[in-house]
Amino acid sequence: MENRISCVRTGVQPGLRRSHDANFPPVIKSWRCELTALSHTYNLYFVACNETIYIFEPSFPCQDLGFIENGYALHPPQSAPNLIPHIDPDDPHSITRLHVDYLGTDEVVIVTCDDGDVVVYRVPDIFRAMEKRRTSLPDNQMEADLDDEVRVFRHINVGSSAWGIAVHREARLMAISANTHNITVLAFALSDPSDDSSSEIDRGFPHDRKRDQDIVLRGTTNIPALSFDNTNSHGRWLVSSSINGNTHIWDLHNPRQPARVITLGVCVSVGDPKVSPQICQCSNRTSVPHAAWAALFIDPRACHRVSTLREACGSGYRATGPVRIEPCFWDITETEHRYTSTRIGPLPAPSDDFDANSENYDEIPLSELTDSDETGSLESDQMSIDSAEEPAQTSSDAENAIIQQPQGEPQSPLSNNPTPGSSLLIPYSDSSESEEDEDNLTFVITDATGQAALQVFYPPAPDPDPSSDPPKYPYCSIYTSQHFLDQSKARLPRTESSDISGGPLVIITKEEIYLFQRPFQPQGDYSDPVMFMRNPLFPITTPATGSRGPIPPYHRHCYATQIPELGIFIVATPAGRVGIFSLTRAKHEFTEKVLFGFRLSAILPCKGDDGRKRADGAKNVIADVWGKRLVGIAVGPVQGMLDEEGGGGGAAATAAHGISDDEDDGEEQEEGGEGGKERVDAKVGPRRWRLIMQFHDHTVYSYELGKQLGSGVSGLGDLVV
User: Where is the stretch described as Disordered (predicted)?
Assistant: First the structure.
């Protein structure tokens, strides 16, 4: 199967070039789940820096964000003084997740905080406040604070550090998970209390929808991610991912207990493959290797039709068939040697002749190695931190720090007695996962007042070699409530149900990605295959040894999103890699039953991902950005293809831009009208999307994603703005 998804890098913005004071930009905290988002209605990009939301307007086509300090800013208020933090005692109100979605016809931005606060703003209010400020402030205004102009739409506290966010547009539902182990579902009123009629969505809901109400779902451990089934217009089904590896499917019509609990993993301690191990003996067990970090309900119409299951699953589906493992697994992990890897960076200090978008950008790093040169590389790599301005005449050791990769315990290269006003390095940790964080060497450069500034991150030593483990085997444990079983039996004579999705469920754990075929049909639990990939973002790069290269211990699949219009989902890791996966469907050659699949389309960043043909043919060379931790991936339509204000997004946009049961990816589809406030040439067909990767040092990589249309690709030149 040819790659149906185009992915082109449009820009790279080094963090050192994005701040007026390169040594002291706003701090982005580590150990968060998602700190960035793009509006689908306006050309707005949001990034959370500690307790502040910065808002930028990316420029087309390279999505340049400009100086950090020139961004507009919002400071989410606190619901009460002296709230108790969970992982960040220094900044209790620091933001843990940022999310943009549609609630009814309103596009909203939602932020969760470590003290349990949840703050919601309307994106149109933010845009109008920016327009007002733009006309009233002088050009040299460094930071435009919007707090006085933007009213908070909703503000609650959920009792402890809040993490997961999910929104259902049509049903006007918002779900928030917290470290209380509970999920709070805010059900906003759908009709006036005086209206005697009931809407279709009201039917079956625990209470009428004529007034706002809250529903509490009780879990058993921390819940980092939530997702609604958007193919169900009632908002009935919610999926939650738990640190203990459980994936819960909740029926909001019967919220007292989960309808289903699916537990998937790969462990050395597996006895019965239908029972999850009680004790994990994996060598990396202290890093919670079987935690579930996300789950996504998939619209079946988003899955590309292909002719064979090998096309559906990629090279992991061998010529002789899939690797079948009891009781129901198909291991479709890629075995072909498609990728090699190299390390780039850290990026050099700013200079007049430096151009991150130049053709030679990939060749400018201070240190670079391939897998064959890994031995001893960490000891020789260096990071230089220099101010863009002339350094002050104080302590040269402190002002021009050279931080070298340590051997064993880190030794600060700075003076033990820094002079007043000079910078100094102090150990920094804001993680509750102490077992993992002990291996990570992170420092914060502070000024003389003690205020945190630039974070400097040492890549830690890799986890113990997994090859030293005994063999690992997958397990699939499934619990189904009696109420759900009774409902399923009642549905058996029916071929369709408006309350039940016919699509699969993608479950994402720390190291694996699973596709569960039919989560609402328990009768097929162990007869339908569960397809999975092991560590797909770290493929084999040295065939002779089977090496995947060093995998940092802070690697986990904690960033995930999907773009149904393109038929893809995206998974990323703080280790700096992003995977683009295509969703597929094909008929089984013997049973004629439709099976859903997925295949790896691209890993980012890659050398040659700027679309240029390179003499070395390095299209599949993974370019690891050394020394930088990824803090967010944001996706949204490119400028000129934005949703219409006040109702152009969500299902409407999906229908307008090319998802249907009769999709044919080889033909152009009719454009669904103007997106946002800029005209789109009708020949473009399915919309182009932008992906922005944000690193903790404010380095930004931007990409443009789209469908391959026939033999051509709609791209930057096809847009008329």
Answer: 339-438, 644-681
